[in-house]
């Protein structure tokens, strides 16, 4: 989880094997490839306002059958994962970060 304690940020990325580059890794509102993301800044086109989020949890989902690894059903992979915090131009931010590594659950009996 990432908790912004001061200022605002744009987004957070968790990407396999390299740091995320928003201009290359985001398609619409989604992260491409072996990447998960969470928006912390949203622009409301109806009201013309910007909305900020200050606490979120970013997780790489296990997929539909977490006890049976299938790389076609999940982006989970062994290896190095990089966390990228994407800031906003001219805005400083401070945050607290808590990282948990969760093993997949046991299969049903």
From TrEMBL:
It comes from the Eukaryota. This is Uncharacterized protein. It comes from Calcidiscus leptoporus.
């Amino acid at each position: 989880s990432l908790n912004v304690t001061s200022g605002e940020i744009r987004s957070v990325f968790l990407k396999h094997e390299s740091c995320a580059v928003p201009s290359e890794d985001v398609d619409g509102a989604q992260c491409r490839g072996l990447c998960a993301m969470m928006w912390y800044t949203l622009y409301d086109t109806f009201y013309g306002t910007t909305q900020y989020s200050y606490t979120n949890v970013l997780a790489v989902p296990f997929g539909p059958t977490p006890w049976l690894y299938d790389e076609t059903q999940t982006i989970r992979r062994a290896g190095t994962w990089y966390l990228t915090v994407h800031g906003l131009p001219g805005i400083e931010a401070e945050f607290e970060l808590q990282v948990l590594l969760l093993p997949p659950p046991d299969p049903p009996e």
